[in-house]
Design brief:
This protein has 208 residues and is of the alpha+beta class. It is built from 8 helices and 9 strands. It binds zinc ion.
């Protein structure tokens, strides 16, 4: 589900969305290739986390997203903490939440965790129906209303907390060759003596 860039621009105009947020939305939508509701909520989450952390988008930041749905792209685009540069971890719990922290030398880093607050999103009935996957939600007729409620609500559907993020230790590793596929992998990724792809269900089959 999505709306066009033009429709989104019009809704941001109608709702008097702040210019900073509009820029984040445009960048995120361009990267994501369309504008799902979760991406927009993600933008507000990142914006709030940055503010509470006292950080700017160009600071070197680390992030955890507890959902793989849409929100990680807002994190990647706005903060440049990406899956590829290992500064964004996705730790799927299903909670719609992101955490940002700065680089830390110790085992813990001061961070800000932002999440969709069930008690607050309640105040936005259509958005809440969509968020809770309520069968009463009407995909066609209620679509624009969700976007309207996201833009009206902004950070008002969110809560945040100060947290201490446990900094993952960099694993020491050696290169080993999987005896089945003969490709090289880090030793800590071996499972029962083979690479995980050979050990478990493959995500592909060889073409004939
Ligand atoms: Zn293998």
């Amino acid at each position: 589900m999505s709306i066009s860039f033009q429709e989104l621009e019009a809704l941001m105009e109608q709702n008097g969305t702040e210019e900073r947020i509009r820029q984040y939305v445009r960048q995120s939508v361009r990267f994501h290739s369309f504008a799902p509701p979760g991406l927009l909520i993600g933008v507000f989450m990142v914006d709030l986390a940055l503010e509470k952390l006292g950080a700017k988008p160009n600071d070197k930041l680390y992030a955890v997203a507890e959902t793989s749905k849409c929100a990680p792209d807002a994190v990647q685009v706005i903060t440049h903490a990406t899956v590829g540069n290992h500064r964004l971890r996705i730790m799927e719990s299903g909670r719609f939440s992101i955490t940002l922290n700065r680089l830390a030398s110790g085992k813990e880093a001061e961070g800000i965790r932002v999440y969709v607050d069930a008690a607050k999103i309640n105040a936005y009935p259509i958005l809440n129906q969509w968020y809770t996957n309520d069968p009463a939600f009407k995909h066609l007729t209620d679509r624009d209303m969700i976007y309207d409620e996201i833009l009206q609500g902004g950070r008002n559907i969110l809560s945040w907390e100060s947290v201490r993020v446990l900094v993952p230790r960099k694993a020491q590793w050696e290169a080993v060759t999987c005896p089945v596929c003969c490709e090289i992998v880090p030793d800590y990724l071996l499972k029962n003596g083979t690479c995980v792809t050979c050990a478990a269900t493959k995500y592909y089959k060889k073409s004939p």
